[in-house]
Each structure stands twice: as structure tokens, then as C-alpha cells.
Design goal:
about 15% strand, elongated, alpha+beta, about 425 residues, 10 strands, single chain, two-stranded antiparallel ribbon
Length: about 425
């Protein structure tokens, strides 16, 4: 792992044969894991002390039920699960303390106890960790709530997350690695009947976790307006483990492509966005408002903001922005929708009284945005061409920025004043009152 001139980490791969790579100590004396058993013919097969005895105990005792061992020992394959646990524990101890270090009880227990907890308990505690791609922060740690925070990613977790496959995700590996900080959410757990279900469950995305992640990124975008995103969803075990890789932090997870498409075009070589310290209290305030909001319309509008700021196609992003505004300011009657949205958005500007968003200008921007939307929905398709290379279509670029800016503004006002999530309250509490 090294740092690019942009400040983002860069990872290179090397096998155990490389002098700069960690040693495979266990593999030297005997095959390590299933692959080793399959390819280790002719190599000395040396059982680690008490390994066979441990496997026999777990096979006959209730604490070993979740390992699903073969009822009767037949060959080394029968004990491969226990063999891997023992091998990983030995390997981790040697990497943590060195091959010449004496075996100390406290050190040994610190390695073994997490494996015991992971093997025995049905409910396992987790932290959700989401690296924030191509985004710098001026602080190492910033608390959002009692259970969530933004934190610089420790080196051993940085290295550990490189083991998560990117296959089939569509994400560029250099973008996946280019993160210095992460959003962390504690208090998660998983319940499984056998240990094989743990990686199967944690190496794929879940709707609950994605909802929590999107809540954070929407708050970050509303507060700062920066281009940002994520490419991994990680689960870090808390107080347990089922395997080790050298001395790295055990981690599960999956790779996703939830970032702006321009990141793929060597985005990691540029400095990227920076979230300044002075903006973080506003991120915290909005994140708490997002997390506590019971409104489904608000959740959907926040999702539209996230889509608006990560879409490849500007026209689609504009439609996301207008749909988000309609979710927040529209009603069941679709007549004169654009006109009503202009009035209600302007009313929110009067309520918010922010110099950057005067009411008349907000109303004018909504009108312009809906003119752009109409041109997209009802306009003519761009003339086809057989040219192999053409300049990028930037016709909708400015309107895309307008859509995201207006939606961010309305979301900010409504998260600050949730009483006006009902458009009728805007009409009664601001518009009609202003006429009297």
C-alpha cells in the first residue's frame, strides 16, 4: 500500500514468494487449507499440536454443532474446517508477535477467543464500514450519533478490504481503493445456524444496510453538494472471527458501483473533493434529521438526490431531480403542477431566509428546470450518427446542476422544518398567511 500524489491509497498485489510480502509460515510445514490438501502430495503433512484432538472434541460436543463436521473422521478433508481455524490462529500469532516470540497466555487468548466466539455463538455483532471514495476529510474522526461516525481507515483494514472481490460489480479497482475515510455504523448483528452461512450472508448487499448507507450519503450531499460516492460495503466482526489472514483486520463485504461515472476516468489521480471541518456539524445535523425522519416521501426524495448526483446521463439526472421535488412539494392533484411547485419552493425560500436562495430566484429556477424537463420528455431525439467518436453531449449539463441544487435546497429546508413535509401546510402556513 502506498499513497498517490492525490493523497488516495494505491494497492499492489504480490504473492508470498515476494520479499516484501508477508510469510506463509503454516504453509511451509504442511498444506494450509483445502487447496493445500489438494496440491500438497509429496509435501510433509504435519499436524499442528492438538489439532486432531480439537476436531474430535468439536465433532462430539454441542459447541461444535455450527461447524457441521463429518460425524466420523475419514480423512484430512473431514477436519478441514478445524484445520483451517488452527492454521489461521498460528499464522496470526506469528505475524503479530514474530516467529521467535514466546507463547504468552494473554497473546494466545487474544487470537483464539474471537475464533471461539465466532464458532459457538449464533448471534454475532458487526460494524458496517463504508469507504467514501475520492473524498478527503480534514479530521481523523467525527461523531455523527452515538453509534455512527466518520473515521480515517486504519492501515490493516485498508489492506484487509483489498481481499474483497470486484468481479461482476462494474467498479474500477483503482476507484474502489481510493478512499481515506469511511462511514461507520455500529450496533449491527447477524444470526446464523452454521458458520458457512456467515460469509454467504455478509458477502452480499442487504436492503437495511443500503438504506443506512444512502441516508448518510444523502445528508453529506445535501450539506456540502460535493461529488462523492462509495464502492464497497464492508462488515467488520466485533469480538469474533471465523478466519484470519495474517495480521489483517477480518472483514466481509461486497463491491458496488455507487459513484459518479467520471471517477472511472482516472479520477484517483486527482485530489477530489474535500469536506472541510466547518461543514461537518451541518452534515451531522442533517444526518440525524434524515435518520429520524418517518416520511417515506422524504426517503424516496433523498434516494432521487443520490441518483441525480451519480447518474451517467444528464437527462436522467434532471428527471431524478424533478421527481424528487414532486415527492416533496407535489400533491394528489396534478393540475398546474409546475406552478404549484414554483410557489411552494419560493415559500420555503421565504421560510429559510438564506441569501443564496431568494424566493423570486428559486421560483425562476423551478420554472427553468421544468422547461428543461419538458424538453427532455416531449422533445425530439438527437439525430443518429455513425461517427465512431463524437464530442460529449453537454446540452443538459447546466440543468443537471440546477436540478441537484434545487433538490438539495428543498431537502435542507424540509429536514430543518419537518412540519412542512405536508404540502398543504406550506399553503396554509406560509402562502395563505402571507396574503393576509
Amino acid at each position: 500500500m502506498s499513497l498517490l500524489d492525490s493523497g488516495f491509497p494505491h494497492f499492489t498485489e504480490a504473492g508470498f514468494h515476494n520479499d516484501n510480502s508477508p510469510r506463509d509460515y503454516v504453509g511451509i510445514i504442511r498444506p494450509n487449507g483445502l487447496l493445500g490438501l489438494l496440491s500438497g502430495i509429496g509435501r510433509p503433512l504435519v499436524d499442528l499440536p492438538k489439532g486432531r484432538e480439537l476436531a474430535s472434541f468439536l465433532r462430539s460436543h454441542q459447541v461444535g454443532e455450527r461447524l457441521k463436521l463429518d460425524p466420523v473422521y475419514k480423512d484430512p478433508f473431514s477436519d478441514r474446517v478445524v484445520d483451517r481455524l488452527v492454521g489461521d490462529a498460528v499464522e496470526r500469532y506469528l505475524h503479530l508477535h514474530g516467529i521467535t516470540a514466546p507463547i504468552e497466555v494473554k497473546r494466545r487468548e487474544a487470537v483464539i477467543q474471537p475464533l471461539m466466539v465466532g464458532t459457538i455463538l449464533r448471534t454475532l455483532n458487526l460494524s458496517l464500514v463504508v469507504p467514501i471514495t475520492l473524498t478527503h476529510f480534514e479530521v481523523d474522526h467525527f461523531s455523527l450519533t452515538e453509534t455512527t461516525y466518520i473515521s480515517r481507515i486504519p492501515k490493516k483494514l485498508q489492506l484487509g478490504r483489498t481481499l474483497i472481490s470486484t468481479l461482476g460489480s462494474g467498479a474500477v479497482k483503482m476507484v474502489v481503493g481510493a478512499a481515506t475515510h469511511a462511514f461507520v455504523s455500529n450496533g449491527w448483528s447477524i444470526e446464523v445456524d452454521n458458520v458457512d452461512e456467515v460469509p454467504k450472508s455478509l458477502n452480499q448487499s442487504s436492503s437495511n444496510a443500503l438504506d443506512a448507507i444512502e441516508s448518510f450519503f444523502s445528508a453529506l450531499r445535501v450539506a456540502t453538494g460535493i461529488e462523492t460516492g462509495y464502492a464497497q460495503m464492508l462488515w467488520v466482526p466485533r469480538g469474533w472471527a471465523l478466519s484470519y489472514y495474517c495480521d489483517l483486520t477480518p472483514v466481509y463485504g461486497t463491491t458496488l458501483r455507487r459513484y459518479p461515472s467520471e471517477y472511472d476516468n482516472y479520477g484517483w489521480v486527482y485530489k477530489g473533493a474535500t469536506v472541510e471541518t466547518e461543514h461537518l456539524p451541518e452534515v451531522r445535523r442533517l444526518y440525524r434529521a434524515v435518520a429520524s425522519s418517518p416520511s417515506e416521501g422524504m426517503r424516496l426524495a433523498l434516494s432521487r438526490l443520490n441518483a441525480c448526483l451519480t447518474r451517467s446521463d444528464a437527462a436522467d439526472a434532471i428527471l431524478d431531480g424533478t421527481i424528487g421535488l414532486e415527492l416533496l412539494l407535489g400533491d394528489e392533484q396534478n393540475q398546474s403542477l409546475s406552478y404549484k411547485l414554483r410557489l411552494r419552493a419560493a415559500a420555503l425560500a421565504l421560510l429559510h431566509a438564506e441569501p443564496a436562495y431568494p424566493a423570486t430566484e428559486v421560483a425562476s429556477k423551478v420554472k427553468r428546470l421544468y422547461a428543461a424537463r419538458s424538453a427532455i420528455v416531449h422533445g425530439q431525439r438527437k439525430k443518429r450518427s455513425k461517427k465512431a467518436s463524437e464530442p460529449e453531449d453537454t446540452r443538459n449539463a447546466n440543468d443537471r446542476l440546477l436540478a441537484s441544487d434545487l433538490l438539495r435546497f428543498v431537502l435542507n429546508v424540509l429536514l430543518t422544518n419537518p412540519a412542512y413535509l405536508d404540502p398543504a401546510k406550506i399553503d396554509e402556513g406560509i402562502l395563505l398567511r402571507g396574503r393576509n
